[in-house]
Design brief:
This protein is an alpha/beta fold. The protein is built from 4 helices and 6 strands, in the order βββαβααβαβ.
């Protein structure tokens, strides 16, 4: 039986969490050239719900069940002075968070009974308050989802540092 992984790559890379024998569908803003393993690439900016609904349809056509959902958002390099006042960037970050939560909700019927959320996220940093909020909001949502689905799925959340 094959191992199916869906990767959401917002920023950065983490080769260590990819299973070599798995079927992979990668959603990212731009093509990730360092991933040499066989995969399907879906380009999205994570701001359009229509794109995420299309991605969901493609995932459903390829996978009957998903083993892992991996979210990578790390190695963020910001100009700290402009970041504090870059309201477009701040708005985009929170919009991506809302849309990823929506997208995860679309995928719930595909989750295997034994399912892993694997998070490779930016380390907490008092300068990167919006990324800290992104991280904690996502983790809190996944913990709530885990509680809600306790009767149907055994969900594990693995947070990598």
């Amino acid at each position: 039986m094959s191992h199916n992984q869906v990767l959401i790559i917002l920023n950065g890379e983490d080769q260590s969490i990819l299973s070599k024998e798995s079927n992979k569908i990668i959603l990212a803003k731009k093509n990730i050239e360092n991933i040499t393993q066989n995969h399907t690439f879906l380009q999205t900016n994570f701001e359009s719900l229509e794109e995420l609904i299309k991605a969901n349809a493609i995932i459903r056509s390829r996978f009957s069940k998903i083993d892992d959902l991996i979210i990578i958002n790390k190695d963020i390099d910001l100009n700290m002075i402009s970041y504090q006042y870059d309201y477009i960037h701040i708005k985009q970050s929170y919009q991506e968070l809302m849309n990823i939560i929506y997208f995860i909700n679309l995928l719930i019927p595909l989750l295997k009974k034994e399912f892993y959320f694997i998070l490779s996220l930016e380390k907490d940093n008092h300068y990167k308050v919006h990324f800290n909020n992104f991280k904690m909001s996502l983790i809190n949502y996944l913990n709530s989802l885990k509680k809600d689905l306790v009767n149907s799925n055994n969900i594990k959340i693995k947070i990598l540092s």
